[in-house]
Automatic annotation (TrEMBL):
It comes from the Bacteria. One of its GO terms (biological process) is L-histidine biosynthetic process. This is Histidinol-phosphatase. PANTHER family: HISTIDINOL PHOSPHATASE-RELATED (PTHR21039), HISTIDINOL-PHOSPHATASE (PTHR21039:SF0). One of its GO terms (cellular component) is cytoplasm. The keyword Amino-acid biosynthesis applies. Its EC number is 3.1.3.15. Keywords: Amino-acid biosynthesis, Histidine biosynthesis, Hydrolase. It comes from Faecalitalea cylindroides. Pathway: Amino-acid biosynthesis; L-histidine biosynthesis; L-histidine from 5-phospho-alpha-D-ribose 1-diphosphate: step 8/9.
Length: 278
């Protein structure tokens, strides 16, 4: 079973990869199942039909997924390629505490198989451009990131897994913040996730970003396993052809080395366990 559970297309504002081409490339790579997870980042982006002014960044519109067209196109892809590949419908909720109600409304409007809960910004300040980190100590922006995550998992429950759980590491210009300093916060987060029957994601994009550890790091994966967590998906965070399905098999080996015996796919927000091949 070769599944990629974090795939973006041109329906995400940071990709120009046509959905049909993604499906065709996935079949050529002998991927059995993909889940599309287009970006939704309320607070810093508006919906395509909101009537509000859409900000342009590097010449591209900074807006959320066009949901009706997205759903229609996935249906078409299933009709055309359903005999070759399993296609699931997901979204990536780039959530903040002050945007929860918007996501609750969105979740109620569409039938989704899978929801990634991500944190891409705090207080509408993004990580990738250092807006969030600027003016803060390494301790302040790392611990502030996990404080936001803790409040979110306490408050919001309509998601499947926590995506790229230590994403802040990718954008930390001061180096890797010590796991021991945040272990207690992460433990509290993971206990809530496990108690709610939710999971976490192994995001294989760490390889293309040249990070020294996995995403999340091996310490977090091991802690999740030791706490009894067993719901885990594997996704490439694909935005381009060369990303699709990349390092998924290596990700399985990493999980097996920690002790995991299975990973998950989803349908209608319910997880299904896939045993690793021995």
């Amino acid at each position: 079973m070769f599944a990629d559970y974090h795939v973006h297309t041109a329906f995400s504002d940071d990709s120009i990869y046509p959905m049909e081409q993604v499906v065709q490339d996935a079949t050529s790579k002998k991927i059995d199942e993909i889940c599309f997870t287009e970006h939704v980042d309320y607070g810093i982006k508006v919906d395509w039909d909101s009537g509000k002014e859409i900000v342009y960044r590097n010449g591209e519109p900074c807006a959320n997924c066009n949901y009706p067209l997205y759903m229609k196109t996935i249906k078409q892809m299933k009709e055309r390629y359903g005999n070759k590949i399993t296609i699931k419908t997901g979204l990536e909720f780039g959530m903040q505490m002050h945007t929860i109600k918007l996501y609750e409304k969105l979740f109620s409007q569409y039938d989704l198989d899978f929801v990634l809960l991500s944190i891409h910004q705090v207080n509408d300040l993004e990580f990738w451009n250092q807006d969030y980190q600027r003016g803060k100590t390494q301790k302040e922006y790392n611990e502030g990131y996990y404080d936001e995550m803790l409040q979110l998992v306490k408050s919001y429950k309509n998601y499947s897994v926590l995506a790229h759980m230590d994403l802040i590491t990718r954008y930390d210009n001061d180096g890797v913040y010590s796991f021991e300093k945040i272990k207690n916060k992460i433990t509290e987060i993971l206990k809530i996730v496990i108690g709610d029957g939710k999971g976490i994601e192994l995001n294989t994009s760490s390889r293309r970003y040249g990070l020294s550890d996995s995403t999340p790091c091996r310490d977090i994966l091991t802690l999740y396993y030791n706490l009894g967590g067993n719901i885990i998906t594997i996704g490439s965070d694909s935005h381009k052809p060369e990303h699709l399905g990349a390092y998924i098999q290596e990700g399985k080996e990493l999980l097996r080395s920690i002790g995991f015996t299975q990973y998950c796919t989803f349908e209608k927000m319910k997880q299904y366990f896939i045993l690793f091949r021995i």
